[in-house]
Amino acid sequence: KQEVTQIPAALSVPEGENLVLNCSFTDSAIYNLQWFRQDPGKGLTSLLLIQSSQREQTSGRLNASLDKSSGRSTLYIAASQPGDSATYLCAVNSGGGADGLTFGKGTHLIIQP
Amino acid sequence: EPEVTQTPSHQVTQMGQEVILRCVPISNHLYFYWYRQILGQKVEFLVSFYNNEISEKSEIFDDQFSVERPDGSNFTLKIRSTKLEDSAMYFCASSLRDIYEQYFGPGTRLTVT
Description:
The structure holds two protein chains of two kinds. Chain A is mainly beta. Chain A is built from no helices and eleven strands. Chain A has strands spanning 4-7, 10-14, 19-25, 32-38, 44-51, 56-59, 62-67, 72-77, 86-93, 102-103, 107-112. Chain A binds chain B through residues 31-32, 34, 36, 41-46, 49, 51, 89, 91, 93, 95-106, and chain B through 31, 33, 35, 41-50, 55-56, 58, 91, 98-107, 109.
């Protein structure tokens, strides 16, 4: 059974810093990995999708990498801003087809102004 | 930009009552999903739906749950006889293809008293 772990559980950094969020998964046979952002009491906003054949994806100040063989992904946020404060979730699609995503518990990020 | 919508945003019901949660997926998407998130816990997959039938379901999705696409735009989750432990945020998601990016709605907060 696929398990997804995110480290750290919480992170607080000053504005302007670059930071890295980590995600690991136990079964490397994945189809894709998706990073989401969740604001308190709100839905999930998709940030980046990496297919299993890709090594990284970039969107603006965000860069996600995938090392499928070692079961790891990182989300790099450059020049952090207070508006980046949220919980960041990592989710993997292990089954292909219309299998659901398996989520980690998230990293709660606070960017101090 | 197209988005997934869900109604109601908050539903309060008494134990044993039936509830129907509604979702309007993105119009050209073919795959539909329901997830739930109990307060403080991970987002969990419930069921996926494609071509007017259930494609995959988790062990959470027991006989108390059912899904339906009653017309060309709506996708519903029915809980027949709610229990206290059904209290959670329920998210609908859709994707164009099975291993494409999943887009989530804002969620329906279900409170069972």
